[in-house]
Design a protein that fits this description.
Length: 483
């Protein structure tokens, strides 16, 4: 299955390229599913794990942190050692993490499992960059779009699926399901994904990995916990300021290292820089609706604006949004091939913004919020497909995995900031419900929707700053040539 040719059309794989792409989509979907797996049972975790609510909240934070740190690292390792090896290792990590969470009845092993599940999300950027090794030029945009769409689809479908399993069976069943899926992904990746000669040997930048992990963890923990700890709390300030300082030192070190974990000179190129900034804002836009709309659906009707849906019902109302992402991936592919990835990314961001505007006007019934979620999700499907295309079109072959990983990191940063901003808005504008119970007011939800719309609109404007190219296939091939 190895090849020395850089043109996939000339390479004979054991399995057809479309089937290989399906396997890469499955692995990416399962990785993305881990993000929303515990959301339906989050309020019950303190009792299930015999711990305090503040400790249980790390079940989500640990996954997001591990994913953010891991994506650029796995991308770089894939560039160095070959993409299939890292895909297989990521799937194995998902098995171990899922089994650990499934077997847990206390906090520590559960958090270890959740962190490993987050680390397994490194599969996604490697899978996206692997598409360029598999698909012919005329099919690349569609294949990249399909794999990229799984980022949003996994999160959207995870809500109703996990709510149903937790309600019908037990919370351990969630993680036995993810264990089974991880085993399937491991076997399918091992058997179906071909070995291509795509390694670019280099030295492992251990200090770069540690610096990125410490800096990102500090900054993202401070941001994600700010609403819970208080924005003036010493822990919050230490995390954010300390993390930023470590990242500044890390950047200085990367610029002077002969084999850096992340080539900052490449990421500073205008096409890559503006694509990553747009990724941050579009990640913000995607996560904002995932936070705000389910809460609106689940608010008691006694509030006058809540829709009184159960967790499972809310998940089911949100699920069509995940399908919209997948359905609009082919649309994104056609747009990329006709008008270019830059304009396609801007269109995707504008559609996300439109979804928020619709939600502002239509929030009186569950089906109305479902429509707004589908519109915003369609924009996510369009935009998420265009981002890696822009990245791969503007970076050297030897940095494809690392660069797509950094793009994934920027989306994760956007989702983390969205969570912090939405929480701050929700807690700053509340109304009384019953005796001494404070809940977010209607004004808080409206402000959140406006902020989401503005963030997505800003993402569209930044996307238009990416230099245009005449054709997306007139760039250096990301192929399987040996070196």
């Amino acid at each position: 299955m190895s090849s020395s040719s850089s043109d996939p059309a000339e390479v004979q794989f054991r399995f057809s390229p479309p089937f290989i792409v399906v396997v890469l989509c499955l692995g990416s979907l399962c990785g993305a599913l881990m993000q929303s797996l515990v959301i339906p049972i989050q309020s019950e975790l303190p009792e299930l794990l015999h711990t305090e609510p503040g400790n249980a909240s790390w079940a989500v934070t640990a996954t997001l942190l591990a994913a953010a740190v891991t994506m650029p690292v796995t991308g770089r390792l894939a560039d160095m050692y070959g993409k299939k090896k890292i895909l297989v290792v990521s799937a194995a990590v998902l098995i171990v993490g899922s089994a650990s969470a499934a077997l847990s009845s206390s906090l520590a092993p559960f958090l270890i499992g959740r962190a490993l599940q987050g680390a397994a999300m490194g599969y996604i950027p490697v899978a996206i960059s692997m598409v360029r090794e598999i698909a012919t030029p005329e099919r690349r945009a569609g294949a990249v779009a399909a794999v990229s769409a799984t980022l949003g689809v996994g999160g959207a479908l995870g809500l109703p699926l996990s709510a149903w399993i937790a309600e019908a069976f037990s919370w351990h069943g969630l993680f036995w399901l993810s264990t089974g899926l991880a085993i399937l992904v491991f076997v399918a990746t091992l058997v179906v994904v071909p070995n291509v000669r795509d390694a670019h040997p280099a030295h492992i930048d251990v200090i770069g990995i540690l610096g990125l992990a410490v800096g990102l963890s500090g900054a993202l923990i401070g941001v994600s916990k700010g609403s819970e700890w208080g924005w003036s709390d010493g822990r919050t300030l230490t995390g954010i300021i300390g993390g930023v300082l470590v990242l500044l030192v890390w950047g200085w070190y990367q610029l002077r290292h002969h084999d850096p974990l992340v080539d900052l000179r490449t990421t500073a190129r205008r096409p890559v820089l503006f694509t990553n900034l747009a990724a941050l804002l579009i990640g913000f836009g995607m996560m904002a609706q995932m936070i705000v709309l389910p809460q609106l659906l689940e608010m008691p009707e006694a509030t006058g604006f809540g829709l009184g849906q159960s967790i499972l019902q809310a998940g089911l109302w949100m699920a069509p949004g995940g399908l919209a992402m997948m359905l609009f991936a082919p649309v994104s592919s056609k747009l990329i091939n006709t008008i270019g990835a830059r304009v396609t990314l801007a269109i995707g961001a504008l559609v996300i913004s439109l979804g928020y505007v619709v939600a502002l006007e239509l929030m009186d019934a569950p089906w109305q919020l479902m429509v707004s979620a589908m519109i915003a999700s369609a924009g996510v499907g369009i935009g998420y497909a265009a981002m890696p295309t822009l990245i791969l079109d503007n970076v050297p072959e030897s940095e494809s995995g690392s660069s797509v990983g950094v793009n994934g990191l920027m989306r994760s940063v956007g989702t983390t900031i969205a969570g912090a901003v939405m929480a701050a808005i929700m807690t700053s504008r509340t109304t009384a419900l019953g005796s001494g119970v404070e809940i977010p007011s209607l004004e808080a939800f409206e402000i959140c929707l406006v902020v989401g719309a503005v963030a997505a609109l800003a993402g569209a404007l930044i996307a238009l700053l990416v230099p245009s190219q005449r054709r997306t296939d007139q760039v250096p091939q990301i192929g399987g040539a040996g070196h």
